[in-house]
Amino acid sequence: MDEQELLRKFGDGLKRARKAKGMSQLTLGLECDLSQTYISEVEAGKRNVSLVNIYKLAKELGLTVAQLVEGVELSDAPSTLGGKALDDDTVVLIPPADECECQ
């Protein structure tokens, strides 16, 4: 799976979660201190979202980070990160949402 497909899968999951909560893009954006345009671009797979923003979105939607990214399987991730090749020994750790000290 290429990076664009990965972003699109995340965006689709975000859109489903937002709609399940009955929220508009504008409302979600305002609650997360993000613009409606940003939310729209993320849902369309046009933005690479930072971990901090993933945390904000998950928290506002009443989800953990893991739940929000659940539809994007690790095995589907690109084989590069920042232009550097990832090998089978690479591990990326994401703390549970309740352990993140994001503001």
Put the structure in a nutshell:
The chain is mostly helical. Helices cover 46% and strands 4% of the residues.
* Helix content estimate: 40-55%
Order of strands, main sheet, comes to 1-2
CATH-derived architecture: Orthogonal Bundle
Q: What fraction of residues sit in β-strands?
A: under 5%
Helix-strand blueprint:
Layout: H1 3-20, H2 25-31, H3 36-43, H4 51-60, H5 65-68, E1 80-81, E2 84-85
Antiparallel strand pairs: 1-2
Helix pairs in contact: 2-3
Structure report:
The chain is mainly alpha-helical and 103 residues long. The chain has a single domain, classed as 434 Repressor (Amino-terminal Domain) (Orthogonal Bundle). 46% of the residues lie in helices and 4% in strands. The chain is built from five helices and two strands. Strands 1-2 form a two-stranded antiparallel ribbon. Helix 2 crosses helix 3. The longest helix is centred in the first third of the chain and has 18 residues. It is globular and about 30 Å long. It starts with a helix and ends in an 18-residue tail after the last strand. The mean pLDDT is 82.
Q: What are the key terms here?
A:
mainly alpha; 434 Repressor (Amino-terminal Domain); 5 helices; 46% helix
